[in-house]
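Researcher: For the record, we're logging two predictions in this thread. I'll number them. Prediction 1 follows.
Model: Prediction 1, sequence and structure:
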Amino acid sequence: MSDVYAFHLMDRTRQKILKHLESLPEAKRNVVPAGFNNSIHWQLGHVVTLADRIIYGIAGKPIPLPESYATFFGPGTKPADWIGEPPSWEELMQLFNEQPSRLRDTFAGILDEPVAKKDNFGQAETIGELIHLSNGHESSHEGMINAMVKILKQQ
C-alpha cells in the first residue's frame, strides 16, 4: 500500500471538511439542526477523536488525545448530554489541522505492519487499512457536515 496515496486521501477529505467549516458563521457552530442529534462543533470533535482512536488505538499505540475527548465526541454522544465544557472550537481546529502531519510522522513507512488489536470493528489487519478505515469514516462525516452546513446557512 502506498503511504502517499493513503495520506493524500486523508488530506483531500480534510480539505473538503475545512471548506465547509470555514463557510459556516461562528454563531451556528453549536446549533443542532432539526432532525440531527449533533452540532458542527460535535462533528469536528468527533472526526478528530475517532481518527486517533481508530488509528492509534487499534494499532496498539497510546492515543494522544485526553480520554475526555471520547466522553464529548465518541460514538453515541451528543451535545445535549455533555457535562462540562467540551474542548473549544479553536483547540479542535488546531488538532484537526495538525493531526494529519502527526499521523504521517507516526505511521509513514509502516502501513503494511499488522495491527495490535486483531478483533476490531473494521476487521482491519494492517495499519494502512486503519488509515483507510479512518478515511472512510471521515468521508461519511464530510457528507454529514456538508448537509448540516447547508441547513444551518438557511436558518
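Researcher: Logged. Prediction 2.
Model: Prediction 2, sequence and structure:
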Amino acid sequence: MGDADRPSAGLLSFVLPVHNEAANVHPLHGRLTAIVEQLGHEAEFIYVNDGSTDESLAVLRGLARRDPRVVVIDFSRNFGHQIAVTAGLDEARGDAVVIMDTDLQDPPEVVFDLVAAWQGGADVAYAERRTRKDSWFKRTTASAYYRLLRRLSDIDIPANTGDFRLIDRRVVEELKKYREVDRYLRGMVSHVGFTQVAVPFDRDERLHGETGYPMAKMLKLAADGILGFSTFPLTVISRIGFLASGLAVLGALYALAMKLFAPQNVVDGWTFIVMSVLFVGGLQISMLGILGQYIGRIYREVQDRPLYTVRSVYRHGEGRPTAGAPNGAARVGDA
C-alpha cells in the first residue's frame, strides 16, 4: 500500500499484551473505544493473555462477550511480553497496528498523534518518552542503558522508547519474518527500516497493579537488545585479552628489572603470582561468560521450537483449543 493510498478510515489493530492486569483492562478498553470512535476507523482489539494468575482472563472473556471487536489469545503459560506482542502481530489484520501495554502508563490518547503521523506518510510512528513518572533509579538506569545501546548497536535504535508505536501493514509483514527466540522488537522494527518518526509524549504512572518487568526481566531485555544487535561484546573480549597480555608483559619486565638492579627490594613470596593468576583467571571466566551468552542464543535458535503455544482463542466469549504451528506463526481462527 503506497503512502497516498492509506485509508482515512481503515482497519486499526490494537495489540495489547496482558499479564496480571485485571484492574486495568476495563479503563484501558473504554479509552481506546472512545478514541476509535473519534478517529472514525474500524478496529480490532487483540488482547494476549500471557499466563496471568489473577482474574485477567475472566475479565477479557467478559469483554469479548460484550464487544465483537475483541479477540483474546490465551497462552498456555507465561511466554513473556515480547512473545505476547509477536502473537498479536501474527493475528492482526489491520492496515496499521498499534502496540501498547495495558498498564495505562502509555496514555491511549497518544494514538491520535500516531495515526496522524501514519496518515502523513510514516511507516512507523514510535512514541518517544519526553518525561516519565518512574523512580529515580529506573530513570537513571534506563537513560544509561539507551546511551550504551545506541553506542554499541549495529543499527540506530531510538532512545527513550518502548514498544508503544504504530506500524504500517508493510512493516508488520516484514516483522513476521523475524522468528528469533530472544526477541527485542523495538530493535527489529529499527532493523526493518522504512520511514520512522518520533511522537513525543509524557508517560504516566501505572494505574493499578505491579510492573510485569521486575529487575531480572529488565536485565534480560537489556541483554537481548545488546546481544541481539551488536557483536561489540565479542570485540571487547579480544581487546581485554590484549590488554591483560600487555599488563603481564609489563609486570614481567618490572619483576626482571627489580631482580637485576634492586634485588634487595625484592620481597620473597607468592603474593604477586597469586594476584596475577586470580586476575587473569577472573578475566577468562568473564570472557567465557560472554561467549556463553552468544552460544546459548545459537543453541536456542537451532532448536527451532515454536515461539508460543495458544491454549484457546476467544471471540464473543467462546473459546476453542488452538494448536500452534512451527515458530508460533499460525493465525488463530474464529471460535
